[in-house]
Design brief:
The complex is a heterodimer of chains A (111) and B (114).
Chain A: E1 4-7, E2 10-14, E3 19-25, E4 33-38, E5 45-50, E6 56-59, E7 62-67, E8 72-77, E9 86-93, E10 99-101, E11 105-110
Parallel strand pairs in A: 2-11
Antiparallel strand pairs in A: 1-3, 3-8, 4-5, 4-9, 6-7, 7-8, 9-10, 9-11
Chain B: E1 4-7, E2 10-13, E3 19-25, E4 29-37, E5 43-49, E6 56-57, E7 68-72, E8 75-80, E9 89-97, E10 104-105, E11 109-113
Parallel strand pairs in B: 2-11
Antiparallel strand pairs in B: 1-3, 3-8, 4-5, 4-9, 5-6, 7-8, 9-10, 9-11
Chain lengths: 111, 114
Amino acid sequence: QQQVKQSPQSLIVQKGGISIINCAYENTAFDYFPWYQQFPGKGPALLIAIRPDVSEKKEGRFTISFNKSAKQFSLHIMDSQPGDSATYFCAARGSGSRLTFGEGTQLTVNP
Amino acid sequence: SAVISQKPSRDICQRGTSLTIQCQVDSQVTMMFWYRQQPGQSLTLIATANQGSEATYESGFVIDKFPISRPNLTFSTLTVSNMSPEDSSIYLCSAFPLNSETQYFGPGTRLLVL
């Protein structure tokens, strides 16, 4: 059972635009929600993360919005740049500190 | 954070053979994990590598196929046994540093089984 659903599967944005990726979860026991960025041939790199008692967290151009009642969270990339082109994964931490990952979003930022 | 290295970075293996992947972390960590990632797909957890005891496997993964060792707090190995072409994948090690709330990943091992 896929416990974290991520959309869209792919996203094309113009340089300077806003990229938005959404995730929804089912398990209310999840207690931490990181986002990872992965470039081809590399391992996933932690980008930003949030606890469920916080509604928003911003780090530079990256913002997580969290809606606990709806069990949804999203990543916003402001002023998107071609260097942001990568695959983004949302994740949720559950029992045993194990992470459940979303399906991934392939972001392309056109110059 | 933690710096995680994996060896080998890639390998091409013959059907029926086994490959051991090493994972080294530059600092002590509480937990280590092994994942599999098919090209273009998401990450699937194989097992939690427990220090000093047997690994904890996820549904669909068994110790005979994926034996794991973790002899100390900074090192772990994953063996892919009796390989078939279906085992071709990227294998990723991750670690949970002390005082961290989430995992950091190694660069991955790209395995092709012929």
